[in-house]
């Protein structure tokens, strides 16, 4: 009887320790092959123009047991814009828009994260575009975690939010496009275990 008690204690203790180890926050690196950075904006008050940025990087410190401790650091390289039209891309890179020669990156750094129910977060942080930094609150859905032996732990996030381009000094003299731009991110990231 005493032997069974010792075995049971060992099993329970091991289970607790394994779960405690899994609960530690991990640093995830954004994987470009599993992520998308897209945007859309209304043109002539009629239809949407859509595009994406092809080059970006970032890291996310995340623990599903303590989502409030999440830390996000994300960089988008503005010169990698792709609107499916080379001439339009050059305009977007110009000093009227992103002015990529002077401001080559768009950045986001989180300041606080609020859990908002199951698998939902509100990420407060600083979004910087064209050298202008603004506080924003971004709703984020946690898609989940998955372990793959050859990659490590994978985590997925998704968000859509809007920004007023004029607040960042972008295309102030372009009335043919709307003021509100929608940003859509699908983020896949991995952590070597």
Shape: globular
* Gap from first CA to last CA: 38 Å
Number of H/I helices: 2
CATH names the topology as Lipocalin
Let me know the number of strands: 11
Structure description:
The protein has 193 residues and is α+β, with helices and mostly antiparallel strands. It has a single domain, classed as Lipocalin. The protein is 15% helix and 53% strand. The chain contains 2 helices and 11 strands. It has helices spanning 2-22, 86-93; strands at 26-30, 36-43, 47-53, 56-62, 71-77, 81-82, 105-115, 120-129, 132-148, 152-164, 177-191. The protein has an 8-stranded antiparallel beta barrel with strand order 1-4-5-7-8-9-10-11. The protein starts with a helix and ends with a strand. The model is unreliable at 1-21 (pLDDT under 50).
Outline:
The chain is of the alpha+beta class and 193 residues long. Helix content is 15%, strand content 53%.
Task: Please give the structural blueprint.
Elements: H1 2-22, E1 26-30, E2 36-43, E3 47-53, E4 56-62, E5 71-77, E6 81-82, H2 86-93, E7 105-115, E8 120-129, E9 132-148, E10 152-164, E11 177-191
Antiparallel strand pairs: 1-4, 1-11, 2-3, 2-11, 3-6, 4-5, 5-7, 7-8, 8-9, 9-10, 10-11
